[in-house]
Amino acid sequence: MQRDWWKSAVVYQVYPRSFADSDGDGVGDLGGILERLDHLVALGIDVVWLSPVYRSPMDDNGYDISDYQDVDPLFGTLAQLDELIARAHAAGMKIVMDLVVNHTSDEHPWFVESRSSTDSPKRDWYWWRPPRPGHEPGAKGAEPTNWGSAFSGPAWTYDETTGDYYLHLFSPKQPDLNWENPEVRAEVHRMMSWWLDRGVDGFRMDVINLISKVTVEAAPGLPEGAIGGRDPRGAGVIDTSEYGDTHPHVVNGPRLHEFLQEMHREVFAHRGPGLLTVGETPGASVEDARLFTDPDRGELDMVFTFEHVDLDSGPGGKWDVVPYRLLDLKRTFGRWQEGLADVGWNSLYWGNHDQPRAVSRYGDDSPEHREASAKALATVLHLHRGTPYVYQGDELGMTNYPFRTIDDFEDLESVNRFRAATSRGDDPDEVLDALRYKGRDNARTPMQWDASPQAGFTTGTPWLAVNPNHTEINAAAQVDDPESVFNHHRRLIALRHDDPVVAHGRFTMVLPDHDQLYVFTRTLDDSTLLVVANLSSLPADASELPDAAAWLAAETVLESGRSDSPGWVLGPWEARVLRRTGGL
Ligand code: TEU
Predict the structure, then answer these.
(1) Per residue in 228-252, pLDDT tens?
(2) Which residues, listed in sequence order, are joined to residue 129 by a DSSP beta bridge?
(3) pLDDT per residue over 357-380, tens digit each?
(4) How far is the CA of 354 from the centre of ligand 1 (A)?
(5) 339 CB near ligand 1 (under 6 Å)
């Protein structure tokens, strides 16, 4: 196995809660994944990234872990996870676990111990700080700093037992671990090794660039965040009209590279090739990414950028929705392709369990254009240089959910946001509109297996309603249809496996200023692929592309959304992939 085997691999993300339910309790589980493994085999993917299945109080659907070395009974048993690993391996697929170590659950024994007294041997495992001097402890404004949580409210919660506050960049049930403490790091390394010894093939590391925060020398006087401002590189999840802009103090901290290199040394360096590490890095620039993913530095194989998922956020942040523009998308992706061309590697994704559905956001989910736009988006993504990630359901072209009221939402981020914004007087309809468009529950509605009442997801009542369009959009209708979105994905995945130009070729953007067309070439030795995709719902003229006549006569590798338009006029959401060989 090559060290960089993942350059020709495609990863599929399973969000277990919403994938398949085997026991009828309405929540997806490991038994369900085992039953549906054939779907992943048919798609041809190489790696499954499993969102958390560990023991958890489920405040944030498993991203709040109370035992890193066990499976939550809601999802099944450790024995089933072993079976999944074995069956995936037998089918030639790898299993990558979600590693959530920026924080634990407040019900994790480490935190229970830590909060028990100021003398606890684990006190320093978390971020404890005294109230702001001159303020009534526990009262509004007595928080050690003005930092905000990504899920609304302050980033500090008062704990009466000891009279101190603890830091939580996410929910109060997700206290941040203190990575400055070497015991914390050693314990995390030991836990990771335990999983690798058990057979897992690597980790997707949750908010891994948050583990190093501002220098400890600044403590206890941690810096305040700017009110009303927003670091444009941040994900804009903190409401800076009320809280300080927290991002600059907690992201990409001074010891981050040191911590990642230490982790690599302790956990991965002595193991053979075949493992995968991918960091979730909100607010990382392409320059940061180059450092994270330079193989000579021994940190990570690849990281997720957030720049493209931030393009429809206005100055007010995530919920200040502005229209996204194709030109911005091309500039963003183009910059990342260029920045990681010689050193490092990209992860490529449209969506995941935190983002709305790709086809509703970057495509056109109207009945007329849904399928063609899902295919065009897939074509563009998969043929970039980098490792593509397919989020469950995107291979079917699943769409956003038609939420009516706030009661249709389950996600704590959306529920808290609605409460916080409306209680200070924001128009509830406007708040809801933003949640409908960007709420994380869009991606979390049950996987659409077939046209039956609960979409084949469960025999019980699903924890989150199935999308009513499952009668049309479902796996059963697509797997055997050669023209389906599913089979288009299958062909793209096969192309990456079969044609080295997809995995290794140089990327060059073409027609960078065209505001409907996304055009690029990939070149390796004497082989060049040209990808031309109309990412708009109107016809588009590509005749200005260099060598247009020669390309018109070239071999067609893949096409979708073909219209009757002649020559280089592409129909709405039409995509073509062409090949020429020999010196061009
Ligand atoms: O997400 C962290 C993150 O930066 C965002 O995607 C965030 O969840 C979202 O933008 C909030 O607006 C990771 C996980 O993927 C997410 O599911 C968890 O909720 C979060 O960390 C905390 O563990």
Answers:
(1) 777 777 667 888 888 988 888 899 9
(2) 165
(3) 999 999 999 999 999 999 999 999
(4) 6
(5) no
